[in-house]
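Support reply, case 0932

Customer input (verbatim):
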Amino acid sequence: MATALARPLARLIDELGKMPGIGPKSAQRLAYHLLRASAADAESLAAAIRAVKTDLRYCTVCFNIAEADPCEVCAAPDRDHHVVCVVEEPLDVLAIERTGQFRGAYHVLHGAISPVNGVRPEDLRIAQLVERVRGGDVAELILATNPNLEGEATAMYIAQLLSGTGVQVTRLARGLPMGGDLEYADEMTVSRALEGRRALLER
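Our regenerated output:
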C-alpha cells in the first residue's frame, strides 16, 4: 500500500516526536517547518545540534555543562567559592543566574533521589559533592533542590551526609509567588511562606 508521507519526512517526524513535550502534531508541524526552511537554516540547525554533542562537556568541579573545564563560574576569581548552591539540573543554574543575586559557586546533581523511578543516591553527583565539601573550601551549602518529594528527600539526604562537617547547610525559602493570590495557594505553599517570613520593620 502506498504512503503519502515520504520516508525522510516520516523519519524526521519520528525523531522530533522523541523529544520531551513534543507530541505527534507538534512533531509534524516542526518537520514541515524545517522542510520549508532554507537549506542554510537547516544546515545551521544541524550544526548547532552536532556542536552540542561534540563541543560541550561536564565541568569536573561543579558538573554543570560547559565548553571549558573548569567552567566559567568555577574559574571566575570574582565568585565566592566558599558558598556553593546545590541544584538538580543545569537549567536550574540558569534560573538562579538570571536573578543576578547569587555570586557563589554551584554543584549540579543531575537529578534527584527517586526510588519510584529507580534513581538512587549513587546515580547522582552526591559523592563528588561530599568530597568537595570535605576538601575544606566550602563554608556554606545552599540546597536549592526542587520543592517536591524528590527534591526534599535529596536535600535531607545531603544534609544528613554532611552532618558534623562544620559546614553551614541552608535551604532556599519557600513561599508565595509574586503576583499570586493567597486564596489560590495550597496549604504547603502557605505553610512554607509562614516559615520563611522576614521582618519589614526592626524593633
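We compared this against your earlier run and they match. Two observations from our side: The beta strands are 57-58, 65-66, 80-87, 104-108, 140-143, 168-171. The mean pLDDT is 91. Please reopen the case if you see a mismatch on your end.
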